[in-house]
Design brief:
The chain folds into 2 domains: 4-84 and 430-488, Immunoglobulin-like; 87-421, Glycosidases (TIM Barrel, Alpha-Beta Barrel), CATH 3.20.20.80. It has helices at 94-101, 105-116, 157-160, 163-173, 208-224, 251-268, 286-294, 297-300, 321-330, 354-370, 412-421, and strands at residues 4-5, 16-17, 23-24, 27-28, 32-33, 39-46, 54-60, 62-63, 72-84, 87-91, 126-131, 179-184, 231-233, 275-282, 305-309, 335-340, 374-379, 381-383, 399-402, 407-410, 429-435, 441-446, 452-458, 464-470, 473-479, 483-488. Mean pLDDT is 93; it is low at 1-25. Helix content is 25%, strand content 28%.
């Protein structure tokens, strides 16, 4: 049996996985592949076609004899590894759970299979949920009674009607394991200086310890009902004063709350293994947050990593992926996960808009190439109005349910996300992938079973034929206009 050693002269400018999966210096592994006579499989989703995660070809690898500047290439090198991959998923909010509950049983099962089955669906393995209410709740609520500083009345009974049942069904549909993290949008009103869960405001100093204990009580309450909580973020969007649930923390305020209250409290409560994620906001100010928190040894010891969103620029400008790469490069011991993103301004006439899916594809490729280890969409399911949402902040989800008829509407976002989540599995490693033309965006991973997954996206109006090259072998593949492909070998 003849083997080739894959070693290509390309470097990436970022940190990559070191011992025990921790980010470290750039690492080259010796990887052997027998590609002579082997084939690859291509799965395609494309505009103006019926192709939706469709197997569109099984092509052989050929010996690479030469290259040409006139041709297009996607170079893949499994020997150049970067961050570990944790998972992809979406948020299990009150809105998603309430919408789910209104569906007939058959449609409920369809949703669960569509998201969490690797065979029938797109194989989600990651999830987020809200602590207390958020905008995608039918109304504001907390888990304690007004003024209860000691948290003696703490009770998650509110979540037992819709949210907890959905999360448990999602866990079961995912094969019994779903990596879940939780985020608060606001402390109870009595703990804040504006006496309001909405409209920003800040946590009062006299409630710092109570609020820190609140997270621990939430994690334990969910554990008690059979839902493990893998991680928590300190505050959803801590620099945004919103008309819905919100709370402001400047960088040094989040740092001090973490190192003096939340970190020590979680440890004292026996929850030191629960990951604490800072920031949980846009890419624009992510550098300052990293400087202030990660450069403080006392705070940094409690911070597993940093979460980020994509809302920093809705004016059509460039998204700030480089900021994520800088955190990955200069704080390589910390982890990065995308914690929320959704197309705003819901309009049912845009259900078929191709831009919905392409926004996801562009962000996911760039975020993974910048060092993200996991990627979390916003609501997995919303109703025909883009809600429920108690302040009218209606948005899109990959799947919408018309609760009047029970119909499920799959937007293009669902398929674009699926090109990553269905094929890249937890435990994979990011590997080097690079295109020779800017019209093609690409990222790649090596799964723990040795399989390689390369995602190639063409957001242009032009068709392209490119050569996927791995070491001394290649395969010729056609990329349709406005398409995304997953190549597996």
């Amino acid at each position: 049996m003849k083997y080739i050693k894959i070693l290509m002269p390309f470097l990436i400018v970022s940190a990559c996985a070191g011992p025990n999966g921790q980010p470290g210096n750039i690492k080259t592994e010796t990887i052997y592949f027998n590609l002579e006579g082997k084939t690859l499989s291509v799965y395609t989703t494309a505009k103006d076609t019926n192709l939706r995660l469709t197997l569109t070809g099984t092509m052989p690898f050929k010996k690479l004899e030469s290259t040409s500047e006139r041709e297009i290439y996607v170079f893949v090198d499994p020997s150049k590894t970067d961050q570990d991959f944790i998972g992809i998923g979406g948020a299990l909010t009150d809105a998603a759970a309430e919408t789910f509950a209104k569906l007939p049983p058959a449609k409920q099962e369809e949703i669960l299979q569509a998201y969490y089955s690797t065979d029938k669906g797109i194989g989600y393995t990651f999830a987020r949920t809200n602590i207390n209410s958020c905008d995608f709740s039918s109304g504001s609520y907390t888990y304690v009674k007004e003024g209860d500083k000691e948290l003696n009345t703490f009770d998650v009974s509110h979540d037992r009607q819709f949210k907890i049942p959905l999360i448990k069904k999602a866990i079961a549909a995912a094969g019994g394991k779903l990596t879940l993290f939780a985020s608060p949008w606001s402390p109870p009103a009595f703990m804040k200086d504006n006496n309001d869960m909405l409209h920003g405001g800040k946590l009062k100093p006299e409630y710092f310890q109570s609020w820190a204990l609140y997270y621990a009580k939430f994690v334990k309450a969910y554990q008690k009902v059979g839902i493990p909580v893998w991680g928590i973020t300190i505050q959803n969007e801590p620099m945004a004063t919103q008309r819905w649930e919100s709370c402001i923390y400047y960088a040094w305020e989040e740092r001090d709350f973490l190192k003096n209250y939340l970190g020590p409290t979680m440890k004292k409560e026996g929850l030191g293994d629960v990951k604490i994620i800072v920031w949980d906001h846009n890419r624009d100010l992510i550098i300052q947050r990293a400087q202030v928190i990660f450069n403080d040894p006392q705070a940094s010891q409690y911070a597993w990593g940093m979460g980020f969103h994509w809302y920093e620029d809705w004016s059509g400008g460039e998204q700030m992926y480089r900021n994520v790469e800088y955190v990955h490069r200069f704080w390589p011991e910390k982890h990065l996960i995308f914690t929320e993103g959704t197309p705003a301004s819901f309009n049912p006439e845009r259900y078929t808009s191709w831009r919905l899916g392409e926004d996801y594809g562009i962000s996911m490729i760039n975020d993974f190439n910048s060092g993200a280890e996991a990627w979390t969409d916003w609501n997995i399911l919303l109703d025909e109005q883009g809600g429920p949402n108690h302040v009218g902040n209606y948005c899109f989800a990959p799947v919408h349910a018309d609760t009047r008829t029970g119909e499920l509407i799959y937007t293009n976002s669902y398929y674009y996300i699926g090109h990553f989540s269905k094929f890249i599995r937890p435990g994979a490693k990011k590997i080097l992938a690079a295109s020779s033309r800017s019209m093609l965006l690409t990222t790649a991973f090596r799964n723990s079973d040795g399989s390689i997954v390369v995602v190639v996206m063409n957001p242009t109006d032009r068709k392209a034929v490119y050569n996927l090259c791995a070491g001394l072998y290649y395969s010729e593949i056609e990329s349709l206009p406005h398409s995304i492909q997953s190549i597996v070998f």
